[in-house]
Amino acid sequence: MSVSPDPSSPNPVSSQQTILTELEARLGDLKATAQRTGSDLSAITLPLQAQIEALRARIGAALASVPTPPMSRWERVQLARAPGRPTSLDYVELLTTDFTELHGDRAYGDDPALIGGPARWQDRPVMLLLQQKGRDTKGKIKRRFGMSNPEGYRKAIRLMDLAEKCGLPIICLIDTPGAYPGIAAEERGQGWAIAESIQRMVRLRVPAVCAVIGEGGSGGALAVGVGNRVLIMENAWYSVISPEACASIIWKDPAKAPEAAEALRLTAPDLLELGIVEEVIAEPPGGAHLDPAASAGFLGEVVSRHLDELALLSAEELLTQRGERFRRLGAFLEG
Amino acid sequence: MALDKFFRRRRAQPTEGSDIPDLWSKCPACKENIYNKDLEAELYVCPKCAFHHRLSARRRVEVLLDQGTFMQQSGHVRPVDVLNFVDTETYPARLLRAQRKTGQPDAILTGTGELLGLKLTVAVMDFEFSGGSMGSVVGEEISRAAEGAAQAGLPLLLVAASGGARMQESALSLMQMAKTTVALERLSKAGLPYISLLTDPTTGGVTASFATIADVIVAEPGALIGFAGPRVIQQTIRQSLPEGFQRSEFLLEHGMVDLVTDRREQRAVLHSVLSILTRQPGAKPEQADPVQADLVQADTSHASELQASGGEQ
Ligand SMILES: [Zn+2]
Predict the structure, then answer these.
(1) What average pLDDT score do residues B234-239 get?
(2) How far apart are CA A144 and CA A141, in angstroms?
(3) Which of A264, A271, A315, B307 could lock A205 by a disulfide, CB 3.0 to 4.6 Å apart?
(4) Per residue in B243-256, pLDDT tens?
(5) Contact between B127 and B93 (Cβ < 8 Å)
(6) Superfamily in which the B54-282 domain is placed by CATH
(7) How far is residue B102's CA from residue B96's CA, in Å, rounded to a whole number?
(8) How far apart are CA A229 and CA A306, in angstroms?
(9) Which residues of B are less than 8 Å from A225 in CB distance?
(10) What rounded mean pLDDT belongs to chain B?
(11) Number of H helices, E strands in chain B
């Protein structure tokens, strides 16, 4: 693979331009496919066209106004954790109807940090798997700040079984600092549960669209991140380790987290460049917390578009596409 | 030493065991002085207290496979620093140091070989290379080993020894957890068994991916095995950890591993399981490894002790 990391810090305009380029390429591909196959893909291309126009207008406006100072990777990590940033359930309220939360792993307990159930996502019947942080102090404690025990991943597996049986596409909203590091979690096989959830996703015969909406912390995030499409919001992060934990290991000092964030290249534009995500979902200026409704609008539109694209694929094609997508990830020299 | 002639081939290489003096070494567990030849003869398990020393990937292959049967497949892919990762030193500098220390391009050795005459594919992680950390090369080699095994119709034996995913490749390291799972799916579809042997230590992303989705999971006695490291857990919960927490025996008790097997019995146990799972004949007496046969006879008291601790109580 060829990756030439951008030495300059990301800033809102340049990251939006990256997104725009990506969207334009996608539209080009779709139009070519439509022309080649003679099929009508306007249900997908028209909303995409509209999204591109909107983004172009916003970039134009941003360029015309006072230039914004470049945002560091650490600043983005802080935006991903900003108080009032929409949680999974906020998006569910804004984008879905008829969500019924189904509880429990049928073996040990119910994890409040990874929840799920059937819903209508902008009128599409789907299965939702949601990593949920609390919205207030009490909720945060109840939901262990979005850190799951093994029961969460085992519940996810059971809901994937159900989705597959009923032919429902799966939407995973990822927002976790990582799996919960506790004695009981280890006793009940935290590593095993994550591994099995990854394996279940690899085997899915229905479409899966995953979106990192806030924090994508390590294996705890990947457990519900093996999708046919992996998307990330503009100010979310996704990494093998949190900046604080990385700083503790390397510099023996969690206060060096800003340096660790730079080194880890964990922002949305970084991940797009590395080929780890298909698309970056734009956020309102200043971050999702400043306008949750607008943010939900962007998320809904992009996820729905990917769902509609994947609906055209057979179960075998979905398996192959997902498998090949992950099989080729990595950077090494041959020979 | 009567057993010595059987173990000449397993003599320590001069480059390894840096702090072990020529003839004797002190066991880190029981503090007894052990004659190095005895330690070798016991496959680097302390003859006094059964402490299992960590092994490099090369030595692990020597200990597990029939002499002269290993055909290496790994080594054609090399790590690269796509992120320009710099912490207290650059990633290329770290890599170079680990490569010089181990003589390996990365923390993994794969190939095919025979175990008591049974053909299999092996993938062995090397803790001596950067703590056995899993980056793109480890993920790629394990994936190729799994796919190669599926194609050749061979079972796969993976030996895990890793502190987890490699930070210096960030999200690319994380993705290896999914990638290896995809490759192992090929093996699964081919109806071929996959056994993982968890050794000290196996933690982080390795525990949360390929190492724990094996059909049969064997652990070495006393190995640290877990997802979160003990230090991280302690910092989070701010209380001391129970005795034996995250050790092999603890995991056996909690139903997470199939077996805890002493290194000196692994060949026999792995052969029994693999030959049945692949519907092949059992080891014939003349095929049986003289080393193993002798060992069991020489140390029956010890063997029965181990069975008691690993099996039913
Ligand atoms: Zn000892």
Answers:
(1) 85
(2) 5
(3) A315
(4) 999 999 999 999 99
(5) no
(6) 2-enoyl-CoA Hydratase; Chain A, domain 1 (3.90.226.10)
(7) 10
(8) 7
(9) 178
(10) 88
(11) 11, 11
Q: What is the DSSP letter of B241?
A: P
> A181 vs chain B: nearest CA distance in angstroms?
5
CB A174 within 8 A of CB A227: no
> Rounded distance, CA A173 to CA A85, Å?
14
pLDDT digit string, tens, across residues A216-236? 999 999 999 999 999 999 999
pTM for the model stands at 0.85
Highest-confidence segment of A15-19, A23-27, A159-163, B233-237: A159-163
CB-nearest partner of B177 from A186, A219, A265 = A219
- The answer to whether residue A194 neighbours chain B at the CB level (below 8 Å) is yes
Q: What residues of B are in contact with residue A188 (Cβ under 8 Å)?
A: 254
Does B172 contact A329 at a Cβ distance shorter than 8 Å? yes
Interface of B with A in 265-294 (CB under 8 A): none
- Contacts within 8 Å (CB) and 24+ apart, A101-108: A102/A155, A102/A159, A102/A162, A103/A155, A104/A151, A104/A155, A105/A150, A105/A151, A105/A152, A105/A154, A105/A155, A105/A158, A106/A154, A106/A158, A107/A151, A107/A154, A108/A150, A108/A151, A108/A154, A108/A188
Bigger pLDDT: A219 vs A18: A219
HSE (side-chain half, CA atoms, 13 Å) at A52:
15
Lowest mean pLDDT: which of A44-53, B85-94, B281-290? B281-290
Instruction: Give the Å distance between the CA of B34 and the centre of ligand 1.
Output: 8
User: How do the domains of chain B map onto residue ranges?
Assistant: 24-53, 54-282, 284-313
Nearest to A18 by CA among A232, A206, A167: A232
Query: What residue type is A40 in one-letter code?
Result: D
- Token pair belonging to A88: 């999974």
